[in-house]
Amino acid sequence: MTLWTAADAAKATGGQAMGDWSVTGFGIDSRALEPGQMFVALKAARDGHDFVRMALDAGAGAALVSRVPEGCENAPLLLVEDVQRALEALGRAGRMRTRAKVIAVTGSVGKTSTKEMLRHCLSAQGRTHAAIKSYNNHWGVPLTLAAIPAEADFAVVEIGMNHPGEIAPLSAQAQPHVAAVMNVAPVHLEAFNDGLQGIAREKASIFTGLVAGGTAIWNADLEDSDILAERGTTSFGRSTGVDWRLTEIKTGSDSTTCAAETPLGEVLYRVGAPGAHFALNALAVLAAIHAAGGDVARAAVSLAGWTPPEGRGKRHAVTLHPDQPAVDLIDDAYNANPASVGAALDLLAATEVPSRARRIAILGDMKELGPTGPDLHAGLADHPAMAAIDIVHTVGPLMRHLHDVLPADHRGTHAPDSANFVLALRDIARPGDAVLVKGSLSMQMTTLVEGLRALGEAPNGARPEKT
């Protein structure tokens, strides 16, 4: 399906269309580009112009460029003065021409999981467009907006930040009908001199982009909820007096059953993953869908079929030996901060394991915490869930601070990085154990998830030999 013609894209950006072409979407990675998409030659770690020819050879419908790369003189291009500004112009134009109700989501933890919940539930109620992966920054948001089909019913935009002043301009581009702040946690602390209050103000700035009469949804359970309340219109949480109140949570082995008091009366719902944090996120999803004109009852049913994305709490059964219980592997390796690690430890502690099996955590460094980093890592030892966790392995120089203060009977292996920890994987888990892998993206904890899963892929369930 054509998303942009050459003429429409040129009009939106003020650029020059070279050739008569049309595109079906957008991509920034020439290796992952789908045929028919526009390749956006952004300048980041590397100059995207160096990969335009490769993208076109792979089937790109056109390329957005600020100069004509060598060998592309007769190629389908959209030539503009600045690729980033042109992308933003396409995003604004895409937003203005769509009929979709737009929901924007931010928060220190759980943005992508919540966005995927919304995508899952809304897709059963109409044509839904949502950000791919974690495209939530200065190029991810306009990419999402530019790709909204004009005839979409719903669109979900994820908005993130690393520094003050980033969210409000992105929200202004998105012009959401509904905006939600999921939480405020000590993330990117090194960029905020005023700590959590500064982060709360930055998160609350998502409400500045709302259309007239839009709905501002905020988490009322937070230390700095009062900052969100100054601009919020609809609250959710477990606190008394909130608009959407979670009243009951029952966590099972593969789901969470919930009850909530809402403006529509009591709502019962089940989330297709265990975890209190997923239950609370799901409640915000129901509130957002209601505000966007969706059907809350249908959404509550849809939540049972949602499962977390890879790296964000997805579970894998790893069979080490035939006729013995599988290892319950919790892949939460995409990112980490004190709040999300705490939620993951709570989930691990609540996970049922067979007799004599263990609950094991493999934790990698939490990044961008500034001078408080060492203390925040060591402080994890005092998290209440630690009492139910048998062994804690640590990866990275910051996690060494946790390793050093753990009780001897809970202290596992420490390694400077994931590459070194891989060598210990063969002896980490036994049949029936529950194993959590969690860490910041740069720690490459996914390597450990892949290594643990590989242990269950050896012939006849035997473990591979050490190499």
UniProtKB/TrEMBL annotation:
It is found in: Cytoplasm. GO terms for cellular component: cytoplasm. Its EC number is 6.3.2.10. It holds the Pfam family Mur_ligase_M. It is an enzyme of class 6 (ligase). It catalyses: D-alanyl-D-alanine + UDP-N-acetyl-alpha-D-muramoyl-L-alanyl-gamma-D-glutamyl-meso-2,6-diaminopimelate + ATP = UDP-N-acetyl-alpha-D-muramoyl-L-alanyl-gamma-D-glutamyl-meso-2,6-diaminopimeloyl-D-alanyl-D-alanine + ADP + phosphate + H(+). Keywords: ATP-binding, Cell cycle, Cell division, Cell shape, Cell wall biogenesis/degradation, Cytoplasm, Ligase, Nucleotide-binding, Peptidoglycan synthesis. Residues 327-440 form the Mur ligase C-terminal domain. Belongs to the MurCDEF family. MurF subfamily. This is UDP-N-acetylmuramoyl-tripeptide--D-alanyl-D-alanine ligase. It comes from Jannaschia faecimaris.
